[in-house]
Design brief:
alpha/beta, 9-stranded mixed beta sheet, two-stranded antiparallel ribbon
Length: 240
């Protein structure tokens, strides 16, 4: 039973592949993976059921390869396999923190991950296991942002926690525009109209149609994940 202190009973955490880079230019920084695992462990201790969707951009980006002449569908499948590598690395870090974890892949590969079956995923969550959804939606041309929105709806998550390298959504990129201001809350339509790079348009539209809020926060600030599930006013919330 979820403690009263937690604002959400079931969440979906969206991590980019780049989140695992740390100070590296390629691959997986074990220290960052362990930090994420510790924070996920903290929210599990609150009784919050946690699902995770992770990207693969630290290893391979299908869109970038497509721009260089590779067939887009082929490149996207390669990107999906990169997300499986990240999911297994994160699973290892979580289990070293004592967090029971299952990886469910949209592309069947039974030797390393369970196939994605919605009811099985929900059952894992109900049993207190962290579920990592790998291989995106299993289809080319769809990003892991869209996979996050889709899986969140399928398992009936109450919010998408979008972990980034900045502390919310700004009027412009705060790294290149020092005068950019941060939104505390913003609507789905404003995100689409302003073309803010929070999640891609398909993911935002899915969340808007199903009234699923998105909380954007800085992953690099220790304790932020717990603050987000406690409902504290951090980052930016996208809602109707």
């Amino acid at each position: 039973m979820t403690p009263v202190a937690a604002a959400y009973g079931r969440v979906l955490l969206k991590l980019s592949g780049e989140a695992l880079l740390g100070e590296q230019t390629y691959g997986i920084d074990r220290a960052i993976a362990r930090q994420i695992a510790r924070e996920v462990g903290e929210i599990q201790q609150l009784g919050v059921q946690t699902a995770i969707v992770i990207g693969g951009g630290n290893i391979f980006r299908g869109v970038a390869a497509s721009a260089k002449g590779m067939d887009r569908a082929q490149a996207d499948y390669m990107g999906m396999l990169a997300t499986v590598i990240n999911a297994l690395a994160l699973q290892d870090s979580l289990e070293q923190e004592g967090v029971v974890t299952r990886v469910l892949s949209a592309i069947e590969m039974r030797s390393v991950a369970e196939p994605f079956i919605r009811r099985r995923a929900v059952r894992h969550l109900e049993k207190g296991r962290v579920v990592i959804f790998a291989a995106g939606t299993g289809n080319p041309y769809f990003t892991t942002d869209t996979a996050a929105a889709l899986r969140a709806m399928e398992v009936k998550a109450e919010v998408i926690l979008k972990a980034t390298k900045v502390d919310g959504i700004y009027t412009a990129d705060p790294l290149t525009h020092p005068d950019a201001t941060r939104f505390d809350t913003i609507t789905y339509l404003e995100v689409l109209d302003r073309r803010l790079k929070v999640m891609d348009a398909t993911a935002i539209s899915l969340c808007m149609d199903n009234k699923l809020p998105i909380k954007v926060f800085n992953l690099l600030t220790p304790g932020n994940m717990k603050r987000a599930v406690m409902g504290e006013p951090i980052g930016t919330t996208v809602r109707a």
